Amino acid sequence: MTSRTPLPVAAPPAVRRFAAGALGRSRATLVGTALALIVGAVAGLGIPGGIGWIAQLLADRADPLALVGPLALLAACAIVGGLAAWLSGVLLAHAVLPPLGRLREEVVDAATTLPLAEVEAASGDLVSRVTDDVEQVAEVAQGALGRLLTAAVTILVTLIGLAGLDLRFALAALVAVPVQAITVRWYLRRSGRIYAEGRRAAGRRAATLLETFAALPTVRAFGLHDERAARAREASAAAAEVELEATRTMTRFYGRLNLAEFLGLGAILLVAFLLVRSAGADIGQATAAALFFAGLFNPINDALGTADDLQRASASLARLVGVVDAGARTVRGAAEPPRAGAVELQEVRFGYDGVPVLGGVTLVVDAGAHVAVVGTTGSGKSTLAALIAGVRTPDGGRVLLSGVPVGTIDGARRARAVAMVSQETHVFAGTVADNLRLGAPAAGEAEVRSALDAVGASAWVDGLPQGAATRVGAGGHPLTPQQAQHLALARLLLVDPAVAVLDEATAEAGSDVARTLDEAARAAIRGRTAIVVAHRLDQAADADLVVVMEDGAIVEAGAPDELIERGGHFAALWNVAASRHDVSDRR
Fold first, then answer.
1. Distance of alpha carbon 250 from alpha carbon 244, whole angstroms
2. HSE of 511, CA atoms in CB hemisphere, 13 A
3. Is 467:461 a contact under the CB 8 Å cutoff?
4. For residue range 487-501, what is the model confidence (pLDDT) as tens digits?
5. Which residues contact 114 (CB under 8 A, 6 or more apart)?
6. Contact call for residues 268 and 261 (beta carbons, < 8 A)
7. At residue 1, does pLDDT exceed 50?
8. Helical H runs in 330-407?
9. 3-class DSSP assignment, residue 154
């Protein structure tokens, strides 16, 4: 049976390997970034040094012209520091944005290759990962990483500057280090769990909301407003509680860092007082030392505070890498797509979430044959179609296309062997022509026009504001469901598969639109093997073979006239349809 399992989350070692590999490709750019940051940090040291110089000149009652030197130093430091900050920002963007772009692509690629049952079971969580989690990683990659590098370089250069003034100033600054180290260790032990739970809570909240929005007709029909609202409140409250816990932990974290700053600055001022009093240092040095350490407040907080950012990003990255790793473990077909159209099912079994739907189905379809699959609702027709098209993977048995297991065919080229048009067709954002070329990117205008003509869609497409160049889909010109189906059938012609699978791909009976789509479907399957899930029995009248399904099994198969004469399951369905005038009585 198909089991529904949550999407995996990568272990910390896998996350570190992924991050190291991604940044390793930008090693040279990161080195350039570090060099620019060092230049900026050294320029930053000139500012407290210049202020100390001015303080000493004032204490010595020096000539006003003597201020030209320190003022020129301050101006030069400001200019160099600004240029270095600009350059480091540009280089860092070049270092982290390409890996981030590749991460997005890898997650999407992996998600499209995962078994459909896994994606359906965790659709809300998957959406949360490719939106919220990518945003978290992007924010850290573009912001926190730069702050961490800047802070680390500034701290190192400043400590060197303190030691240059007097080694005792640098030693006094180290008083803050034990408190900072204990604080960071305490924080890391707690925040990892909090942020991992926060990402899971966000995923559950997204899943709850998406499920509610997707089922709005059912919610309204059965008066489930209060029940769904309660679920949304519960999921939102759980996510908010985790955020509040994270905020409380962060507040305690920064409070302890402020204590470390107080101890360090107090030690610096005490040493400065003693040194000036004993003539071991002058006022300018003491002023510069105090300003040096005060200037460390923000860099130290940035460096230690990025622990918070890195914890959040690590939790998000673990969820993204989990999807990438799951996609890498998914067996991808590499076999050439066969051009012949024979179809064979060998003892195929399949179920949804532990509930069996198909049990040991065996079927042989000759190349070029047209097969109609009929049966009552829930008999397994659409599931059979999805398995033949390779949309779903059987739990047991094999689906063969001209002797080749459908799951072993190269996924990117599988449509050349088998393509499916279902009842619900998605219209992608882009032009009409773009939607038609999805399966045949190299198709020219003449080929697009030929496909539209063949299915009878040219008239209404030409009536659009810009014809086939009209933008449709999200934000574009709206199409009716019937027009979307019409495009899907034209797309099938452009793809030109050996096997076409139509799962209730035309409208209900009794309308001109239905007849138009029926004609389009006949044009789309002409000259190829066709598996048609028929929602009207008159669609089965012209089939070479009719397959009747009940309770996940094939209970009858044969030519339509033969089955009617036999008086079995198909004949019973036909008689019911004839009594409603849905079909003409052929007997």
1. 10
2. 7
3. yes
4. 999 999 988 889 999
5. 323, 326, 327, 330
6. no
7. no
8. 381-388
9. helix
